[in-house]
Amino acid sequence: MADPQEVLSHRVQSALGAAFGPEYAETDPVIRPSQFADFQANAALALAKRLGRKPRDVAAEIVERLDVDDVVREVEISGPGFINLTLRDEWIAAQAQQILADPRAGVAVQEAQNIPIDYSAPNVAKEMHVGHLRTTVVGDALARTLEFLGHNVIRQNHIGDWGTPFGMLIEHLLDVGEHSEQADLLKSDPNAFYQGARAKFDGDEEFATRARRRVVALQGGDAETLRLWGELIELSKSYFNKIYRKLDVTLTDADLAGESSYNDALEGICRELEDKGIAEVSEGALCVFLDGFTGREGKPVPLIIRKSDGGYGYGTTDLATIKYRAEVLKADRILYVIGAPQHLHLEMVYGTAREAGWLDGGTTPIHVQIGNVLGSDGKILRTRSGAPIRLMALLDEAIERAGRVVAENRPDLDEATRAEIAREVGVGAVKYADLSVSHDNEYVFDFDRMLALNGNTGPYLQYATARIRSIFRKGGLTPEEATGPIRIAEPAERALALTLLGFGPVVEQVGDSLEPHRLCAYLFDLAQTFTSFYEHCPVLKAEDADVRASRLALTAATLRTLVLGLSLLGVSAPEQM
RNA sequence: GCACCCGUAGCUCAGUGGAUAGAGCACCGGACUUCUAAUCCGAUGGUCGCAGGUUCGAAUCCUGCCGGGUGCGCCA
To answer: At which positions is motif 'HIGH' region (predicted)?
Structure first.
């Protein structure tokens, strides 16, 4: 066990039990990183009141019973009753050695949960916007991280592939021709296709009539209409996959679970909720009213599950997803990586599912709220002309900007290599920018900042890995050949080794809290701690062979941790930059 | 009107009820015949929106207020 915080927790808890009786052995010892030592235990302050004694006396008694000599070099009571703990260099070195030998870099495998993750969810025949970009990137990072922690992740790309707009889209497809250039726009510039259809729908009464008739045919299961609908899906899949491949996102066609896949379940959902007395008819629509949900003028807010015209909306589909994921997929947690504005709606879906008993098997639905991406004006990101930004163009611009920097700094590399580096850096920068701020906050999109080589950015972390790889190339060995033994003498070595021990805990924390930005912050800290180490401690030019072997081992452990950490975020690390 | 989110350094953002609130950027001052300077070291910069409350201890928890954003019946 390499996590100092956990080791110290157990030791302090034992001391608490020994000092104050077994009923205190479960007390949280409140181990925290400290600015005066490596860690501090704050339990004494909280316990003082309960025990009716002075905090410093309580701390003294804990210290007296504390058995940590093998781990801790110095124990000191300070201030009102803080217990400062300074770890032994040898212990840190030994733990770092274990991390180096562990292919998982100190991340424990957890008891497997079934975790469906709903993320990305673009619409057929529509451009993905920066909001989709963020749920795609955050959802994918969570999928990768939870999978690595040992969970059974089931990716659910809930694409918008059903509804009334399809009448218009199908008629437009027929008008322009299935294999026309216009139809091919769906693969590259879907909004152009959509807007073409929309314009006709709004301006041409005859077209609008055809479109409405087509919706009826689609819902009625007309074979030719379904074939054309399938064609729209296929063309759109081509667009989605182009984006996913460029983004290096793990979603494939196998993960598609679009709205249409629940069509057959909707009628049953409504009947079940009506039979259970959860749904009732109001103003012609079948609705669920839940306690605690009121809107304007105190009127109860409905979750509409069947419209007054008999059709179904997203509320019904979302209920079908939660029932399916809970009962068929046997989900322990269901993650909805979806925009923050949909919070109220999702709460109503959860509440309805709970009342219906669908979550009784121990399923917890969780809304991973995605904040809006803003422009520098603080408004939702758009082009100067006010149009939504095309995602592919945005990625291409990031790659192009990265390419300019690479060309400037690495004229020695051939063009193909530079292009690949530019792609990894540009895409990595965009993804990292989405991941490094807490997901539920809005954040301001800024190319210059995300592509900077300084600061908490993707390129900075990638550069740190590229530099380390360069050390091994120059040294004529592979990172795997650097096995230590790790010894600690210099403060910079100590700081680096101690930071390495924090990887396992932070990955576990991301799995629990579903906050990838914590991993970003950790990796940035690790990279900074490494560059500082690298500045102060010669590695290849170390004074003797033992020191060199130890520093190479620390360097190898850092590289593996950085690359593994970035991979959990879905950010690649180029061999050179 | 009701609900949710947010308010921390000039800017962008972190912050597990614990000691003197942190990064990055920008600005200022240093370090390159380099182990990749695409870097590093240092300095400056704060009434944590305001006011109460709980607590030994509050940026963090509770209440009220101010300011900003979002949502609130047949779109998703």
So the answer is: 122-132
